[in-house]
Structure prediction request, 180 residues.
Amino acid sequence: MERTILLLVLSTAVEGDTGKHIFVPEKMIWSDAQIYCRNQYTDLSYVRSQSGVDRLRKAAGESNPQGWIGLHRDLNNLTGWKWSGGGHMTYQNWCQEQPDNHRNIETSVNIFNENGEWNDDAETQQKDFYCINITVVEYEAWPQGDQDHQCPIYKRCGALTKEGLWENWDCKEKLNFICI
Ligand SMILES: [Ca+2]
Prediction:
């Protein structure tokens, strides 16, 4: 079958700096905040740029900006950091002298000050938090009976075929695309 021509812009928490941040003023430990965000929205917030930080800060309005975000230590490499939605940290915005892993128990990251800078802290601390809500394309055109478009992770993007249907595609493949 001749394949893909166009598209797609299925943003995921891994791929982009898109989505709307929501500040949740309800104190929880990091893992409970993660569950809450995944149930109510998409995930704990992530940012990949200064503009992402600015948008996240606006979500808290004038209130105290401190709150968990989706960054945590990579369990396979404790000097590395990963986002809750997947993917390693490529942009960083640490406070001065952070991360300091104080008492060797600071595995999760929170917004610490009005500049949106980060601090590592113990995940058992109860804090407000930031969720991100990512709106994926509402229209769907998966072929009937195609049930495996959720997994595995390397096929989490969709591409449009000449037949007008979607098929699973590795997100790292280079294809033409259109924006909507
Ligand atoms: Ca710290």
